[in-house]
Amino acid sequence: MLRSGIILMIREKAQHGKSAYAIGMELGISKNTARKYIERQGAPPPKIDRFSKLDSFKPMLHELMSEGIFNCVVLLERLKDAGYEGGITILKEYVHPFRPAKSLPATRRFETPSGKQAQMDWGICQYTDSSGILHKVPAFVMILGTSRVKYVEFTSRCDLKSLQRCMVNAFSYFGGVPKEVLTDNMKTVVVGRQAGKPLWNTRFEDFAADIGFTPKVCRIRSPQTKGKVERLVYYVKDNFLPGRKFEDLSDLNLQALDWCRMVDEKPHGTTGKIPLQELIHEGLQTLPSQPVLDKYRWESRIVTRDGMVSFDGVRYGVPWQYSGKEVQVRLCSGFLEIYYGEVLLAKHKIQYRSGSIIYLQGQYEGLAERKGIATPYPCAQQRNSAVEIRELSIYDQLLGGVSHG
Q1: Which domains does the chain have, with CATH numbers?
Q2: Which end of the chain is more exposed for a tag (fewer CB within 10 A), N or C?
């Protein structure tokens, strides 16, 4: 329960037309608490003393606060040196409304022109499985700076390949590529700094050049420079995930895209405009060719001796004849596709339980007969043909023309 002095301040500010939210921000209380005491305006206020021992020391107190001193223990010492005989409780109650907000120092809002920038980040979310066990799952989020159109994708990893795949999927969803992509100093993007400038991960730098955007990183310990995507991460955790039911990550990602479309069809809280309607004004750059996009949707794997391909901690079967060969894998509509060149070796429904083994029907057919050797043996071949009957004179000629007559 609030002290009587705070309650009076709430009601006084409400009489001057301030909202419960504004009062809560000023007094450091929740807007719901402020609203509760505003709605109780008709009830008689708690009885308080008209005068207090602090009254004659308030000018000195305000002078100390103007110097940035808000620690009530320090203030009490100074006031007692000046003759104050009261306690610290009434002092804390009086000082509380004057304390600076926790969000200080103030920061500048960063806005970008159309098509200029997208912001991206990872957020670590949580869910419980059917047994009640808690799991963590990374969520890739990206938001366009002007229209505020959003993209969310849940993954099994936060590595460079996953980041590239998610970014390509996001650009395809947006229908274009922004000129810049702003992120924090994640190791998959920046490997260090030299003279204050970022040292880019060369593989990510090549990726940016292929896709056609300029990578940007926010200043160290200055996350507010990418505040749009920071808020989106919290929005996903607080608005999308709570109470949501899903079968696997593929199902969760389908729901995430539906949710993105739903919220982007409503006016944005900051711009007041509908993001999906503003998307046409973003002025995004044209998407690169399909082969370039597909290049970053594929990952290379070596098939094990027992004909398995590892992906996200799960082993998937391919025909045993491809053991030891390098194959290309990709996620596609909830399935893992495994290719050797242009040949589709296997298509498995993606599994998310690490350690699982998924066999391919007929995976080891012919292995025993061939003794595990896929290539032909280097040997000669016997032909089965009829014996030709020749005249005896033929043999005479071969023996030097000897006559038998």
Answers
A1: 4-98 (no CATH), 117-290 (3.30.420.10), 298-358 (no CATH)
A2: C
Six-digit token string for 77: 């010492």
Q: Torsion over CA of 351, 163, 172 and 228, rounded to 10 degrees?
A: 120
Q: Which residues are within 8 A (CB) of 322 and not within 5 positions of it... i.e. 6 or more apart?
A: 303, 307, 340, 345, 374
Q: Which of 181, 184, 146 is nearest to 166 (CA)?
A: 181
Closest-CA residue to 176 (of 141, 217, 147):
147
Query: Which pLDDT score is estimated for 312?
Result: 84
Q: Identify the three-state secondary structure at position 214.
A: strand
Question: What tens digit of pLDDT does each residue of 167-201 get?
Answer: 999 999 999 999 999 998 899 999 988 888 889 99
Global model pTM greater than 0.70: no
Burial of 333 (0-12, 13-18, 19+ CB in 10 A): exposed
Contact 339, 297 (CB under 8 A): no
- Per-residue pLDDT tens digits for 197-230: 889 999 999 999 999 999 999 876 655 556 788 8
> Can you tell me whether residue 11 is helix, strand or coil?
helix
Question: Per the omega criterion (within 30 degrees of 0), is the bond before 105 cis?
Answer: yes
* Look-up of token digits 């005479």: 396
With pLDDT > 90 as the criterion, what percentage of the chain qualifies? 41
Which position has the token pair 């009530």? 72
Q: Assess contact for 213 and 181: CB atoms under 8 A.
A: yes
DSSP letter string over 122-183?
EEEEEEE-TT--EEEEEEEEEEETTT--EEEEE-S--SHHHHHHHHHHHHHHHTSB-SEEEE
- What phi, psi does 248 have (nearest 5°)? -155, -175
DSSP string, 64-113: HHHTT---HHHHHHHHHHTT--S-HHHHHHHHGGGSPPTTPSP-PPP---
